[in-house]
């Protein structure tokens, strides 16, 4: 049985790919916005308004980026094994959980460090998916 009896319309495929790329770009923007608000603004502001030490916020900041970088090593394997939808959904659940933990326990040093780590893990899959969706021969042009 032949897979295609007619030639596929490449304009429809390009439209679907472009639509998915735009959707993923919006998701990436929202994830990075939430990450920036938490990591770059909220955590750095904590020592001035609460009794949390600068060492705790510095540790949370460092652990966030260590978790992000170390997750990049295994995320490709997880994407192949479980698929994009499951990995992205898990990342979104981790991100929302980490941010809600901070809302529920705003002055807990453990929660601040743990939520920073969870947010670092949650942001990693979207970057890997976006970088893999860019055409290889036009990667420099499309990435800016």
Automatic annotation (TrEMBL):
InterPro entries: MFS, MFS_trans_sf. It comes from the Bacteria. Keywords: Cell membrane, Membrane, Transmembrane, Transmembrane helix. GO terms for molecular function: transmembrane transporter activity. Pfam families: MFS_1 (PF07690). The chain crosses the membrane at residues 21-40, 52-79, 86-105, 111-134. This is MFS transporter. It comes from Escherichia coli.
């Amino acid at each position: 049985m032949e897979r295609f009896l007619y030639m596929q319309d490449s304009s429809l495929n390009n439209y679907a790919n472009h639509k998915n790329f735009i959707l993923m770009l919006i998701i990436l923007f929202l994830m990075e916005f939430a990450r920036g608000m938490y990591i770059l603004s909220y955590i750095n502001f904590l020592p001035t308004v609460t009794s949390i030490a600068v060492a705790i916020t510095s540790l949370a900041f460092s652990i966030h980026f260590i978790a992000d970088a170390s997750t990049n090593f295994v995320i490709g394997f997880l994407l192949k094994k479980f698929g994009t939808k499951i990995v992205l959904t898990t990342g979104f659940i981790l991100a929302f959980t980490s941010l809600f933990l901070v809302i529920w326990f705003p002055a807990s040093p453990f929660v601040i460090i743990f939520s920073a780590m969870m947010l670092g893990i949650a942001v990693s899959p979207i970057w890997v998916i976006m970088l893999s969706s860019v055409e290889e021969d036009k990667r420099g042009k499309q990435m800016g």
